[in-house]
Amino acid sequence: MSQRTQNKPSAATSEPAPATFASLDPRTGAVLAEYPIHGADDVAAAVSRAREAAVWWAGLGFDGRRKWLRKWKAAIASDAQSLAEVIAAETGKPVDDAILEIMLAVEHLDWASKNAGKVLRRRKVSSGLVSANQESTLGYEAYGVVGVIGPWNYPFYTPMGSISYALAAGNAIVFKPSELTPGVAVWLSDKWKSLVPNQPVFQVVTGLGATGGALVEAGVDKVAFTGSGPTARKVMEACSKTLTPLVAECGGKDAMLVAADADLDAAADFAVFGGMGNAGQTCAGVERIFVADDVYDTFVEKLSAKAAQLRPGGESGASYGPMTLDRQNDVVRSQVEDALDKGAKAVLGGRESLRDPYIEPVILGDVPEDSTAMTEETFGPIVAVNRMRDLEDGVEKANRSSYGLGASIFTKNKAQALQAAENLRTGMVSVNSVLGFAGVPSLPFGGVGESGFGRIHGADGLREFARPKAVTRQKFRAPLNLLTMERKGRDMKIAAWMLKTMHGRG
After folding, report:
1. What domains are defined for the chain?
2. Is-catalytic flag, 249?
3. Is 85 one of the catalytic residues?
């Protein structure tokens, strides 16, 4: 039985379901710790506690919540090395990569706590001429309890993109982490409890897929989900029963476009980082590269030379770690074999690079557009490099994907870069870097199509976790009394004249 998929109940046995499951080190298979499998009753109880705590939390107001979130942030940052070691143990990634993940997440927590009041506080808006007698205001109020279902590839940074902004908006959180990385979530919860032991504003429930399903059906007011498209559809189906709103981030097949005038050394360096970092297990990582014909061979040579220096492993100093989810090895193997069988060139590595649980860097060239390496998310240290005539052609090819999360463009021509960025069917674009948008707290993060919907991060991320509420207050009687069942003919004649005068011309 696979080390990373054990503890799944079998329909063929009458034995009672296990009460705990193991968190394993993907580098060695060693058991790190045992965690409880929370059932539907446990999850419902957590949501009930969260609902009571949410009243206290919302009542603190923006300034009050900011104080607690800043204390939480300081507690996390001051003990970051401890958290990084938990992340590294459960995912297999190098500790340095875990530290970087924590840095980015803490930046978002800091921004959300500082800016929630500016974005969500009630403010006056224009009432227009017809409703000039109304004072109009717009404010945002918390949903109440948000259920967050997190992934394993970035078990701190990614869920904190929902948790930070939802908390700052005034919601309580019940967080179900991936069964591969429960220790990260428990560490985070323990830090919260050390500050606020009597207010369960942030709680964690652990378990397998059924625990996540129970959270969706436990009466939460909104769900934030990160994971695969097929699983997102199941979550949507469950949410539809109660019209529970959902924000879903479902991965990507991100493209990099390299123009003829690009700095090829910089582009190759970023391509290696974006495609091979975290063993390629990055939703917005580089998976497809389209390079101008004139510089294709030169770029591929530079890319191959840089990627060839990488060394995966579990020891200190390794470039990246193993596949965290063992069945991902089969996905990567299938895509590489499909591409090669259809005529792609193995520029670097190939079938021999696929050695569980580590995968050496693989660069595929001239990959058929209908191969799965071009159409399906890979989530491994594999990049496909194809040719394009120019940026316009590259945009057309990049947009063929059903995914639309992020993209990157390399060119020295600012005008062409911005035009290409506008034309890409994605939620985010970086110019002359990769993943630049992920580290900017004021920018929203999210995709289109198969990459999901809704946004985390930035002002849009704060609004994602708050309901807009409109309020009007009549300051004086309207000159034209139209909101009555006893409208006067004179008022209607004036209203008709205003309609034609104000809006009758194009």
Report:
1. 20-250+458-466 (3.40.605.10), 254-441 (3.40.309.10), 476-503 (no CATH)
2. yes
3. no
